[in-house]
Amino acid sequence: MPTSVSKLALLWDESHLWGLLAWRGLCALGARPHLLRTTDVTAGALDRLQPRVLVVPGGWAGRKAQALGEAGRAAIRRYVKAGGTYLGFCGGAGLALRNQDPTAPLLGLCELRRKPASRRLPNCSGHVHCRLHVPQYSASEAVLPVWWPSQFDLDDTTIHILATYQRPGPDFWVADLPLDDIAPDDLSAWEAIYGINLHPRWLEGDPCILSAPFGAGSAILSYAHLETPNSPQANALLAALLDLPEAPIPPWDIRQLTPAWEDSALAQMLAAVQGLIALGERHFLLTWRTSWLLGWRRGIPASHITTLLAMLSTALSLPISPSTRRWWHSQSPRCLELCQRLCEETARYLVQERRSMTQNPSSPECGGSTRTSMRQRLFGPFPGYGGVYGQLLQILDELLAKILPEAPDLKV
Question: What is the dihedral sign for C-alpha 397, 402, 405, 407?
Answer without folding.
Answer: negative
